[in-house]
Amino acid sequence: MVLIESPHGFALTLKNGRRLFVSSPSKDAFRIREAGVDSSKAPSLHLNVNREKDGVRFISHKASLLLHDDGSIAICKSGRLIAAASPIIPPASSIEKDGLSAKEGHKPEGEFSFSKEGYAFVNDSPVYGLGDKTGPLDKRGYSYVNWNTDDPSAQVDTFKSLYKSIPFFVMFHRSESIGVYLDNTGRSLFDFNKNDSRRIEVSYEEGLLDLYLFVGSLIGVCESFSSLVGRPPLPPRWSLGYQQSRWSYGDEKEVEDVLANYREIDVPVSVIHLDIAYMEQYEDFTIDSKRFPDFSAWAETLLRQGVHLVTIIDAGIKALPGYFMYDEGEKGNHFATLKGRIYHNEVWPGDSVFPAFIKVKTQQWWASHVEKLLNQGVSGIWNDMNEPASFKGPLPPDVDMGGLPHSLAHNIYGDRMAKATYMGFMKAKRRPFIITRAAYATTSRYSTMWTGDNQAIWDHLRLTIPQQCNLSISGVQMIGNDIGGFGGDTTKELLIRWIELGLFSPLMRNHSAYGTRRQEGYAFDEETSRIYSKAVHLRYELIPYFYDKLREAEAHGTPVYRPLIMNFPSDSRLVDENTEFMIGEALLVAPALFPGERFRSVYFPGVFYDFFSGKRFAKGDHLVNVPLDRIPLFVKRGSLVPLGEKGTSSPEFGATLRLLTTKGDASYVHYEDSGDGLGYLNGEFNLFQIEKKKAALSVSYIHEGMKTHYGAIELVDFQGHEKKVLFGF
Ligand code: GLC
């Protein structure tokens, strides 16, 4: 093999004439790409090279990659083989081809040929990641297609695709896991040990090979992946408060009634979402002046009560001459075209056209409208229908979305819409709060995400844990689902269990569909309202911990919503744990997940304490009571957990930092800033190193960039005893 070194890595030609480049984007990662792929997407660190019998070994800081001249690869660390893969040309395959559902008259998903040369990995260990796909935490035995899909039917284990495409997965080993990222924006097929119990097959329909391989612990691999694709910006602190939505609160009065009803049952609300009815005729960037006669003044009044407005913006633009977005978009060539003419399909506004979001010029145009909307008093933007959804059949593959055909643009369409929205926040000099339904691997750097249209069914309550753990592994940290379920009528018990689980989602929002029964926390009986209030108050108390974890995610890419195996990698009991999860390294949640469930088994992988009573649980299985009003939350021994002031209804920093402690020494990094705005990017924040040894506590600044909010620190033990410890702030 002839080897040529360039600043972008080594170029070589395989036996079959295929030309590849090998580089090292970080000290624990390798990149293999075909000639023609943009090299600038990732840095290229120094690699040592050894020629071997039938290949070349590339040696990085942490591991080595042996590339044989037939294209097969082996990754070794400390002389041990830890991963191997060989090229495959999969047979032309199809989804649902000759399938039962087609026979029964349903529309088949179509025939797709994944005939591009992909890779088959030797694997029999647990597999995690791949974004939002349905099914259990461990993906072995399932195959999935990355193709952003809006399918209104109940999302079940047999679904191949959902709203997001994050072509990244991890083959888990207790010491060295391997992360695999296929950066291909077209349709790709990932078969996790389904066709062959010892193989994972990765293949794709179009485009060129661009494959990244990461080596390290599960958490380390996640951090490296997120540093490559972009880390999630710290959200404004108010967005960690309780968010209420419904399709659709129709006018000012309805929103005010919702807020008043919540006040009555003592539930603080930090965010109200306005779904499509706030617009005129579903026209983006308009506000119906009959329903919202003085929107800005009204928004200002709500803000004074601590309530932020988030407005929905859909991808499809109403095709109506005279509507400014249509006219400007047509004039500026901002719409996707087919054979040179603006392409039309149908979404909520009826006949619609689609911004060519791949084009930077179109992103800038969009950003200027986002900026204007923000300046009218809106605090956050909710991006929807951006797969893009299309009611009159799928967009043809050759629709030009702004320099890329739909077949390659589809999976990044929502990503670029999120980017354009983010650019609007930057123009307005505001800390971004964006929620998107469709996403690609890079979307977290712009936007938070919700999991789309779930249903008010117990299966979807249970799906929360594996789905959000896998999203978190895939780099998405500010994540949540529709509490209570979007479609269908929720029940009292389901809503209670969902708020008790949903309070631990970084993005905590109750949302429901048009025509379903009302599911705000006050919509049932006194008992439901009381439990709802208790759950939301617990969330507000935990905001300081969530904010720290999200800051860590921005700084290091560290997952927030974690499967237990991430914190306890040597405990094989945990490889497919779907009913418990952790927030960061300290909190373990074991919710009730079935109707009528009043006690459940909880497995503790170490010593934990009940968050409320302080009861100690040794490593092992325990039976735990879960009456309707019990939130099964546990704290790991040796933790420090920052808490908000007792009973607080505010997401903002208080004057006292309360620290929950357990037995055992502990060390913790706590972050403080103004809670909103962009000043923290210029160093306006404090970072504290907190150490607890025996009974002694020490606090020191790692970074001091602003006057602290805190006058005191209180140590809290489980009996609720608060010991005031004053520091010289
Ligand atoms: C889509 C969204 C949903 C929203 C509805 C109306 O179905 O996923 O959240 O309420 O559109 O805008």
Structural class: alpha+beta
What's the multimeric state?
single chain
Q: The CATH topology of the domain at 640-728, please?
A: Immunoglobulin-like
Strand line-up in the sheet with most strands: 5-6-7-8-9-10-16-15-12
Main sheet, how many strands, which sense, barrel? 9 strands, antiparallel
SS elements, strand count: 46
- Shape-level CATH architecture of the domain at 640-728: Sandwich
Notes on the structure:
It is a single chain. Among the domains are: 562-636, Immunoglobulin-like; 640-728, Sandwich (Immunoglobulin-like), CATH 2.60.40.1180. It has eleven helices and 46 strands. It has 729 residues and is of the alpha+beta class. The strands form nine sheets. It has a nine-stranded antiparallel β-sheet with strand order 5-6-7-8-9-10-16-15-12, with no helix packed on it. Strands 29-28-27-26-20-19-18-31-30 form a nine-stranded parallel β-sheet. The model has no long low-confidence stretch (mean pLDDT 94). Helix content is 20%, strand content 29%. α6 (360-374) crosses α7 and α9 (492-502) runs parallel beside α10. The chain binds alpha-D-glucopyranose. Residues 247, 275-276, 312, 384, 437, 452-453, 486, 511 line the site of alpha-D-glucopyranose.
